[in-house]
Design a protein that fits this description.
The protein is an alpha+beta fold and 133 residues long. It has two domains: 4-39; 45-121, mini-chromosome maintenance (MCM) complex, domain 2. The chain is built from three helices and seven strands. The protein has helices spanning 4-13, 16-39, 95-98; strands spanning 45-50, 53-59, 64-69, 74-80, 83-89, 108-111, 116-121. The strands form two sheets. It has a four-stranded antiparallel β-sheet with strand order 2-1-7-6, with no helix packed on it. A three-stranded antiparallel β-sheet has the order 3-4-5. The longest helix is centred in the first third of the chain and has 24 residues, at 16-39. The two termini are 27 Å apart. The mean pLDDT is 85.
């Protein structure tokens, strides 16, 4: 933790140009955050693929549960609160179930053993391939 005396010394060392540069960078980061937040579009639907072929295209605005027949057996998928998650699957490790819900365009849940994939489709950020949290 910084002591107050060290912080005061640092503030006195900074020149006027340094302070202006720091202020400009802070304001640029705030403006960028606001612009990116407004550019983000809400996802409208999810696509469920089985064995590499699109089987369902479902609206995220309509809550429902659906059973999908995969390579190993049934997978239960739930759409609720404009998000989708895998409730249960017939695979052994159930990594797809533990992944939780997805709701942003580009996010996916994949059950490799059962060959079921859920992806959120819709408008995404312009030009951004991935966003980490």
């Amino acid at each position: 933790m910084w002591k107050k005396s060290r912080l005061r010394d640092l503030v006195h060392i900074l020149t006027v140009g340094d302070k202006i540069l720091i202020l400009c960078l802070l304001s640029l980061s705030v403006v960028s955050g606001v612009v990116l937040k407004r550019a983000h579009k809400e996802a409208k639907y999810c696509i469920i693929s089985v064995n590499g072929k699109d089987a369902y295209k479902l609206l995220l605005s309509e809550p429902q549960k659906i059973e999908v027949k995969g390579a190993l057996g049934e997978s239960i998928i739930e759409i609720k609160d404009k998000s989708v998650r895998m409730l249960d699957s017939s695979c052994l490790l159930k990594i797809c179930v533990h992944q939780g819900e997805i709701k942003s365009p580009g996010e996916t849940i994949i059950c490799v053993p059962n060959r079921v994939m859920i992806r959120i489709a819709g408008p995404a950020f312009g030009g951004i391939d991935a966003v980490t949290r």
